[in-house]
């Protein structure tokens, strides 16, 4: 059994201690924001914050982080209003979105250590891969989030993601076929 704190909640995993933390988070805790990408530690989709370090959760065993504090994308902000999340949305950074949680977690660790990173520091800290090519917007979004975290800028919250249930199930009269006779 491995005991750790995940998103400020004490957790006891009754898993083989050699189980990758990624699978403990996704399968045992249902924290599916942490993504499985390559499984070899090259893509960064599984990045989480462990005790203030950006760690590839596919490469660390749950038993190896006994007693640690782990933060996933869900723990960063349940309301999706962390300055990084707002800055990414405002800059239209997400494309397919698969890599974004890992990138945001790596960026959050960077901003805890460096409140005003330049482009070189950002590119050195964010080694995550993105097949959609978000990199040109990524640097500015992280710098904008840093300014917001320092109180120099406000990033307005965008619309909540998702579809209003009333819009999802409405009937469009022109598309309703006439009754059968």
UniProtKB/TrEMBL annotation:
<dbReference type="InterPro" id="IPR002888">
    <property type="entry name" value="2Fe-2S-bd"/>
</dbReference>
<dbReference type="InterPro" id="IPR012675">
    <property type="entry name" value="Beta-grasp_dom_sf"/>
</dbReference>
<dbReference type="InterPro" id="IPR036884">
    <property type="entry name" value="2Fe-2S-bd_dom_sf"/>
</dbReference>
<dbReference type="InterPro" id="IPR051452">
    <property type="entry name" value="Diverse_Oxidoreductases"/>
</dbReference>
<dbReference type="InterPro" id="IPR036010">
    <property type="entry name" value="2Fe-2S_ferredoxin-like_sf"/>
</dbReference>
<keyword id="KW-0560">Oxidoreductase</keyword>
<dbReference type="GO" id="GO:0046872">
    <property type="term" value="F:metal ion binding"/>
</dbReference>
<dbReference type="InterPro" id="IPR006058">
    <property type="entry name" value="2Fe2S_fd_BS"/>
</dbReference>
<dbReference type="InterPro" id="IPR001041">
    <property type="entry name" value="2Fe-2S_ferredoxin-type"/>
</dbReference>
<feature type="domain" description="2Fe-2S ferredoxin-type">
    <location>
        <begin position="1"/>
        <end position="76"/>
    </location>
</feature>
<dbReference type="GO" id="GO:0016491">
    <property type="term" value="F:oxidoreductase activity"/>
</dbReference>
<dbReference type="GO" id="GO:0051537">
    <property type="term" value="F:2 iron, 2 sulfur cluster binding"/>
</dbReference>
<keyword id="KW-0411">Iron-sulfur</keyword>
<keyword id="KW-0001">2Fe-2S</keyword>
<dbReference type="Pfam" id="PF01799">
    <property type="entry name" value="Fer2_2"/>
</dbReference>
<protein>
    <submittedName>
        <fullName>(2Fe-2S)-binding protein</fullName>
    </submittedName>
</protein>
<keyword id="KW-0408">Iron</keyword>
<dbReference type="Pfam" id="PF00111">
    <property type="entry name" value="Fer2"/>
</dbReference>
<keyword id="KW-0479">Metal-binding</keyword>
